Structures are given as structure tokens and as C-alpha cells.
């Protein structure tokens, strides 16, 4: 039986045709709306990911920004530039100093250029690809620094072929600019981190050249043609070595008012943001597969529903003119089919929601692993410093042994033994974080531990940055504990106090050592914003922190609390009367065995 009526007027035909056109428009509009919403949601998630990658880039660049400025004030470097000779004793001393500083700061290379751009000293002076003797006057970072401008420049190393970010600062004396100090940061670890994330992120310069990328095959390609002037400038300063700077095979177009990159037949929603560096733009590409799939699903469902409605309407009209009872039976069958299809759609939606919940749980687990990764990085940083010192002492011991200076060799071995003991203490702290371990108690001079911690932090702080008021008893106070672990406690308290005053115009830390009856008391105060009362009960909990993301994992106070508890002491925190926080540490004072022997 045909569903199309045998007799139909033009008026009814036009009405049906109009309804069909309207239905097609509604289905198309529904699919467009679904795609628009999905694209907006994808863009929101992409912006969050872009912020995260922007933070990793900023952290990698700003971590070493202070080095050229600080080294430009080094008297040894100024003396070397005044002599303008890279072969004398001053040059050797500066080379060693730069090497030690480079190892501690974990930068790639530190080197000194004279006023003509020739390298007089470098941290890699003993390596095959040493910078010493090479001239880098063609580099923009040298030209900017010589003209008095603080400079930053990304380029492929002209000597090593290793890409990195170069930061420079002029070295001044009474006669003017004597030379330039340059710090190079290796950007390859950051790109490996992006690559391991499995996403598409890259950074372009003012000429549209991709110089940082999570994909190796996109690096040193362009997203837009480079004009001849800019290309000549790039070749002149040898910014990208011998790279051909070929354009990427991509198509740019708009989808739902968003930029879309089509590379290799794959479409990506392109999000970009300025990085804060002149001309640098960070791009984040997220696949449009999910958006297209949702849009196709919406159109298919709409088309099916429109077809069902249209065919059902014809069917109802035909049956209404003939047999109403038979029409009701057939209509019931069709509704049953529709219900089954809708049930299939409901089941598919439930499976999608289950997958989204699992993805959310995976993201939470990833966040936890990132926090543990930050803790491991801090432990590795602490171990690298004594390891570098051991290598230096071992090399010195070999030279002294060759010269027959056995007493000096003995001193170097004593230093190596002390450093290995310190490394053992550091790794012991990691073990104690995982499980409870026995602690060897000794009679420790609390005053000595506090003085060591203060001296350490004063070398870390910038000169004049923090005003430290230390009220000392002038006499030793002994407690049962361990010197290194006590130093760790006081370093954590001083570091937290300094962090709490971030943004303050005048920063002041007060430290008091008290001996009252049988108690040894240490008080650390700051003039920061104080402790929020709602966070007071959680301040010593593991992984609890009020700092911004990437500036702390919330373990310092928790570890300090555990150390103090192990030594039988106590720690508490309170807000001061005016502003800031006050940490109070109490131990049971003991009389040293040497005094009892008397």
C-alpha cells in the first residue's frame, strides 16, 4: 500500500513541501547548534590546557633570568674584562666559578664576552665544544646588551648545535660597558615534556617560525610565509642554524567562529595566546573529531526523526481516510520501532557518560603524580649539588696526589666523606617521608643549627630584599636531635616566611632564640598576610598549600612537623597582633655531657 495519497490539492502539497523544508532547516540548525556548543566546550578545555603549557614555558625561562644580572656584578668577571685576556690565571678562576655556578643553577652554559663579542670565559671551557675563543658579535643578545638593553633570544647554538634561550646583561665599570655576560637555557627538556603529554602545542616567533614544539617534524617550519628581509635577518644572525624554514602543509579556515588548522587531513581547533615575550605566540591544537562526530550524530538523529515524522504523517493521512482501526495498529508498531531507537540512543549516552567519568578520574590521578614528580625534582636538585662538589674534590685529589701533597689529599677526602654523609641524610629524608624510621639522637646545639639555616637563606635571598632581625642568646642551647634535620626545619620555616611576604613592600623576618626553664624555644615571625583561620588546622597536613600552582607541593611544613615530633618537640602557628604569622617551636633543653663531666 502506498503512503502517498492518490489525490492531493496544490495547497496541501505546498503545505507539505513547506513543512519538509522547515524540518530540514530545523535539523540542520540543531546540528549546527550541537557543533557550536561542542566547539565552545572544547575551546574552554583548550584554554585551560594552554594556560598550563604557558606556565611551564614561563617557569623554564624565568628560572634563570636573574643569572646574567647577578654575574655582571662579579668582581672576578670585571677584572677579566679589564685585562681582556682569556688565558691568564684570572680567566681560569672565572671559568671555574662559571662552571660551579652553572651546575648549581642547572643552566646549560654561562659565558663572558668582551666588548668585541669574543668569549673570554665559559662554564664549558673544558669540553670539546667550548665557547672560549669564539666570537658571537653577530647575535642579537650581544648587540642589545652592549647597547644597554637586557636581552633574551632563542636560537640554535652556533658552536654546539643545541637550541636554547640566551639571556644577556652588560658588565659595567667606571669606564662604561666592558663586556656581556650570557646565560643559555636548554629548552629540549621542556619540549620533551610537551611531547610526552601527547598533545599538539608549539610556539612561533614574530616571523611565524615554529621554534618550540611537541612535534619534532613541525620544529623550524613556518605557519606563514617569511618575507625576504626577515629571512635575511635570520640567516645573518644564524638563529636557526641551517634549517630551511619550509612552510607547514596546512590549511587555515574558520569553523563556528574559531580558527581551524587542517594538517595532513586532520582538523584541529587552533587556540593561541601571547606568551609575554615580544613576538612569541603559543598555539594549542585540539582535534575536532569529537565535535564532528557529535554534529554528525545530531544530523543523523534529526534526519531519522524528520523522516519518521514525515512518513508517519503521510501514513496517518492515508490511514485516516481509510481504516482508522488498522491505522492505529500500524502506528503502534512504528512507535515501538521509534522507542527501540530512542532506547539505543539512551544506552549510548549512558556509555558516553561512564567514559567521561573515567576520564575525570584519570585526570585526578595525573594531578597526584605531578605533585609527586615535583617532590622528586626537589630531592634530585638537593643531591646534584653535593654530587657536583664530590666530582670537584675528587679531581682536585687526583691532582694533589700526583704532586705528592698527601695532607691536602686527606683534606679533600674528608670533604668528600662529609658530602656523602649529607647525601645520605637527604635520601634518608625521602625514606622517612614514606615510612617511620628510627632516628639517632645526639646532643645538638640549637643555636648552631639556627645560625646555619640563617646563613644559608641569606645567601639565597637577594641583597636588601628581606630585613632579618635575629635575637640571639649569645650562648649555646642543647637539645636531643640531629643537626641536619634541625637545619632543614628552620630553612623550611624561613622559606615559608619569605614566601608569605610576597607582594609586601617592606619584608621583615624576626627570629628569637629563648631558653626558659627546661624549654628551648625558637620563634620565627613575618609581616606577611598571616594565616587564614579556616586553614589553620590544615597547615601541617601533607600536600596542603595556599601557594599558586607550580610554586609548592605542600610538603615543607608537613616534613618539618614530623621531624620535630621525632625529636620530642612541638610546633604551633598563630597570627601576630599586627600582621603576619608566628611559628613557635619548643624542645626540651638538655645539659651537654661535657658539662656533666666537669
Structural class assignment: alpha+beta
User: How far do the termini sit from each other?
Assistant: 120 Å
Name of the top-level CATH class of the largest domain: Alpha Beta
Strands, total number = 18
How large, in whole angstroms, is the Cα Rg?
35 Å
Poorly predicted runs: 1-6, 360-375, 429-437
Mean pLDDT: 79
Instruction: Please tally the helical runs, counting DSSP H or I stretches of 4 or more residues.
Output: 14
Per CATH, the superfamily of the largest domain is Histidine kinase-like ATPase, C-terminal domain
What is the CATH third-level topology name of the largest domain? Answer: Heat Shock Protein 90
The main sheet comes to: 7 strands, mixed
Helical amount: 40-55%
CATH A-level architecture of the largest domain: 2-Layer Sandwich
Assess the beta-strand content as a share of residues: 15-25%
**Cα shape:** flat
**Number of separate structural domains:** 4
Amino acid at each position: 500500500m502506498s503512503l502517498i495519497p492518490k489525490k492531493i490539492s496544490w495547497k496541501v502539497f505546498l503545505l507539505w513541501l513547506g513543512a519538509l523544508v522547515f524540518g530540514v532547516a530545523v535539523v540542520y540548525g540543531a546540528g549546527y547548534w550541537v557543533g557550536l556548543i561542542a566547539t565552545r566546550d572544547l575551546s574552554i578545555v583548550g584554554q585551560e590546557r594552554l594556560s598550563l603549557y604557558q606556565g611551564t614555558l614561563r617557569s623554564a625561562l624565568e628560572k634563570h633570568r636573574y643569572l646574567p644580572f647577578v654575574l655582571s656584578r662579579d668582581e672576578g668577571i670585571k677584572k677579566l674584562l679589564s685585562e681582556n685576556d682569556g688565558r691568564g690565571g684570572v680567566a681560569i678562576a672565572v671559568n671555574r666559578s662559571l662552571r660551579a655556578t652553572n651546575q648549581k643553577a642547572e643552566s646549560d652554559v654561562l659565558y663572558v664576552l668582551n666588548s668585541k663579542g669574543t668569549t673570554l670565559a665559559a662554564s664549558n671551557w673544558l669540553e670539546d665544544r667550548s665557547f672560549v675563543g669564539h666570537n658571537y658579535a653577530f647575535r642579537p643578545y650581544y648587540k642589545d646588551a652592549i647597547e644597554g638593553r637586557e636581552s633574551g633570544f632563542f636560537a640554535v647554538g652556533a658552536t654546539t648545535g643545541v637550541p636554547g634561550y640566551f639571556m644577556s646583561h652588560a658588565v659595567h665599570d667606571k669606564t662604561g660597558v666592558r663586556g656581556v655576560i650570557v646565560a643559555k637555557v636548554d629548552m629540549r627538556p621542556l619540549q620533551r615534556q610537551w611531547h610526552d603529554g601527547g598533545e599538539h602545542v608549539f610556539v612561533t616567533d614574530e616571523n611565524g617560525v615554529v621554534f618550540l614544539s611537541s612535534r619534532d617534524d613541525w620544529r623550524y617550519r613556518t605557519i606563514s610565509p617569511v618575507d625576504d628581509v626577515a629571512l635575511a635577518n635570520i640567516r645573518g644572525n644564524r638563529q636557526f642554524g641551517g634549517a630551511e624554514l619550509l612552510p607547514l602543509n596546512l590549511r587555515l579556515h574558520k569553523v563556528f567562529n574559531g580558527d581551524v588548522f587542517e594538517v595532513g587531513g586532520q582538523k584541529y581547533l587552533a587556540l593561541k595566546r601571547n606568551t609575554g615575550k615580544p613576538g612569541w605566540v603559543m598555539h594549542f591544537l585540539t582535534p575536532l573529531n569529537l565535535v564532528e562526530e557529535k554534529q554528525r550524530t545530531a544530523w543523523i538523529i534529526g534526519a531519522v526523526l524528520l523522516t519518521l515524522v514525515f512518513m508517519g504523517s503521510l501514513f496517518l493521512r492515508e490511514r485516516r481516510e481509510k481504516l482508522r482501526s488498522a491505522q492505529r495498529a500500524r502506528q503502534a508498531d512504528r512507535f515501538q520501532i521509534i522507542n527501540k531507537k530512542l532506547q539505543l540512543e539512551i544506552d549510548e549516552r549512558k556509555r558516553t557518560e561512564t567514559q567521561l567519568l573515567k576520564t575525570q578520574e584519570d585526570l585526578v590521578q595525573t594531578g597526584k603524580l605531578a605533585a609527586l614528580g615535583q617532590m622528586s625534582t626537589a630531592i634530585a636538585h638537593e643531591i646534584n649539588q653535593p654530587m657536583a662538589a664530590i666530582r670537584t674534590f675528587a679531581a682536585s685529589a687526583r691532582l694533589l696526589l700526583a704532586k705528592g701533597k698527601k695532607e691536602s689529599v686527606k683534606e679533600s677526602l674528608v670533604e668528600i666523606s662529609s658530602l656523602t654523609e649529607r647525601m645520605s641524610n637527604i635520601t634518608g629524608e625521602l625514606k622517612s617521608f614514606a615510612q617511620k624510621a628510627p632516628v639517632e639522637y645526639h646532643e645538638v646545639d640549637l643555636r648552631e643549627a639556627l645560625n646555619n639555616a640563617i646563613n644559608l637563606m641569606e645567601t639565597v635571598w637577594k641583597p636588601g630584599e628581606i630585613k632579618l632581625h635575629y635575637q640571639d642568646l649569645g650562648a649555646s642551647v642543647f637539645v636531643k636531635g640531629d643537626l641536619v634535620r634541625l637545619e632543614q626545619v628552620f630553612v623550611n620555616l624561613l622559606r615559608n616566611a619569605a614566601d608569605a611576604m610576597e607582594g609586601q613592600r617592606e619584608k621583615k623576618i624576626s627570629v628569637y632564640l629563648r631558653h626558659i626553664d627546661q624549654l628551648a624555644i625558637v620563634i620565627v615571625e613575618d609581616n606577611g598576610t598571616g594565616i587564614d583561620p579556616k586553614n589553620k588546622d590544615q597547615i601541617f597536613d601533607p600536600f596542603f598549600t595556599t601557594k599558586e600552582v607550580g610554586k609548592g607541593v605542600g610538603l615543607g611544613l608537613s616534613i618539618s612537623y614530623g621531624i620535630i615530633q621525632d625529636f620530642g618537640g612541638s610546633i604551633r602557628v598563630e597570627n601576630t597582633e599586627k600582621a603576619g604569622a608566628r611559628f613557635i617551636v619548643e624542645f626540651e633543653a638538655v645539659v651537654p655531657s661535657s658539662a656533666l663531666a666537669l
